[in-house]
Amino acid sequence: MLWFKKKKYPVFWNDYLKKFKTSQPKSIENTRFVVFDTETTGFDTLIDRILSIGAVSIYNNIIDVSNSLEVYLKQDEFKAKTVEIHGILKEGNLLKISENEAIEQFINYVGNAVLVAHHAAFDIEMINNALKRLNFPKLKNKCIDTGILYKKLDGKKESLISLDVLCDEFNIPKHDRHTASGDAFITSLLFLKIISKLKQERYVHYSDLFRASNNNGLI
C-alpha cells in the first residue's frame, strides 16, 4: 500500500493559504488591491531572475503609500547590459536579500489581495517560477492586467500598449520609471484612472474587472 504524506510548508505559506478560506468582498471599494512590479535580468521567465520587487496597496480607491513593499534580491545571475534599464548593480549600496526571503516578504505582504500589474502575465510568471524553485505552489491570488483593463474603455482595441504610452495619455508623471517600486506606484495611478474613466462610461461591477473580453464584458 502506498502512503502519501501531506507536504509540510513553513508557517508563512500556511498563513497565506488560510486567508483564502474566508469569503472576500465583491465590491471594488471594499477590495484590497496590491499593485506590483518586478525588475528582472531579462524577459525569459525560465532563465532570467528577479532583481527587485515593488508593491503598493490600494483600498477604497486610495493608494496607501505608507504601506508598501520594496525588496532587492542578491544577484546570482548578473547581466551587465540590463543595468542601463533598471540601474541595479550586482553589488552597490542597496541592501539585498535572498530569493527565499524576498518571496516570503512578498507573500506576507500581498495576502489574499487582488494583484494588479501592467502586462501582468510576465510578473506573475516570474513570481511563480521563483516559488517553484523554492518548492512552493503557484500564487492563488486573482490578478488584473492594466493593459487588458485599458482595452475595456470605449474605442480602445490596441493589442499591446506600453506603460509609457498610457502614462502620457493619462497625464501620469514617470518619476522613478524602470524601478520596481516606481513602476508599481505609476501602475497604481493608472489603475485608478482607468477605473474612474470606466465608471464615467458605464456601470462597472466588481466581476467586470476580471473579464478578458473587450468592451462587451461590461454592463
TrEMBL record:
Keyword Hydrolase in record: yes
Residue stretches spanning the membrane: none
Gene Ontology molecular functions: exonuclease activity
The entry's keywords: Exonuclease, Hydrolase, Nuclease
Pfam families given in the database record: RNase_T
InterPro entries: DnaQ (IPR006054), Ribonucl_H (IPR013520), RNaseH-like_sf (IPR012337), RNaseH_sf (IPR036397)
Domain (Exonuclease): residue spans on this chain: 32-200
KW Hydrolase (keyword) present: yes
CDD domains per UniProt: DEDDh (cd06127)
Descriptive protein name: 3'-5' exonuclease
Species: Gaetbulibacter aquiaggeris
